[in-house]
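Schema walk-through. Below, the input block comes first and the output block second. Nothing else is stored per chain. Lengths vary across the set, and this one has 88 residues.
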Amino acid sequence: MNKAKLAYRPVGMALGATGGFLAGLVFKQVWKLLGRQGDAPDAMDEDRAWREILIAAALQGAVFAAVKAAVDRAGATGVRRLTGRWPA
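--- output ---
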């Protein structure tokens, strides 16, 4: 295992946790921008329509995937700057 990959492991774990937190914040803001009141619906919320639940789930998945990709890429780029090697 190369040094870059070893250096990235703890960084990747910390960035993953931070990314999850940031993705949650971004999703809440996007949900509000769409004009939705209150929190996004949960799949088990019987007072919400299927359509709203599925739209919220798809949007949340897209936001989480985009934030994860951005955080992972930034972390790998940072490790390359420090070690001179890509961590993959």
